[in-house]
Amino acid sequence: MDSQVVTVDQFAAAMASIQEAITSLGQRMDGQQAQQDTQMPPPPPLGQTVPQPTPFTLQSQTEVTPPPAMVVVPTSEDTYARMDRLEQKMR
Fold first, then answer.
1. What is the Cα–Cα distance from 48 to 82, expressed in whole angstroms?
2. What is the mean pLDDT of the chain?
3. What predicted TM-score, i.e. pTM, was given to this entire model?
């Protein structure tokens, strides 16, 4: 018998094994995605606008909460100047 010949049963077994591996990999990827979904997003970089929390209202109140205010967080490009100011404040 030639070693290049594959029976239908061998082919079916190989395909079933491949399908199981693909299913297992998909389940692992879904689990990792679920873990990533529950993690908190990283904070925004400095110098970008940061939405401020909106004050809450009770259900019995009828006033409408205004949209969140945007505040620009100033940044200093001079790192050494910032370090000097911090060191002065610590003294």
1. 18
2. 72
3. 0.32
Structure confidence by residue, pLDDT tens digits, 30-60: 777 666 666 666 766 666 565 666 666 566 6
Burial 39-73 (b: 16+ CB within 10 A, else e): eeeeeeeeeeeeeeeeeeeeeeeeeeeeeeeeeee
Q: Which comes out higher in pLDDT, residue 2 or 31?
A: 31
Q: Locate tokens 């990283």: which residue?
A: 42
Measured distance CA(49)–CA(22) in Å, rounded: 43
Contact 75, 46 (CB under 8 A): yes
> Which neighbouring-strand residues pair with 71?
50
Asked whether the predicted pLDDT for residue 2 surpasses 70, the reply is: no
Joined tokens for residue 22 = 């693909």
> Measured between alpha carbons, how far is residue 33 from residues 21, 37, 41 in Å?
18, 6, 14
Give the C-alpha distances (Å, rounded to integers) separating 22 from 14, 28, 32, 61. Answer: 12, 10, 15, 54
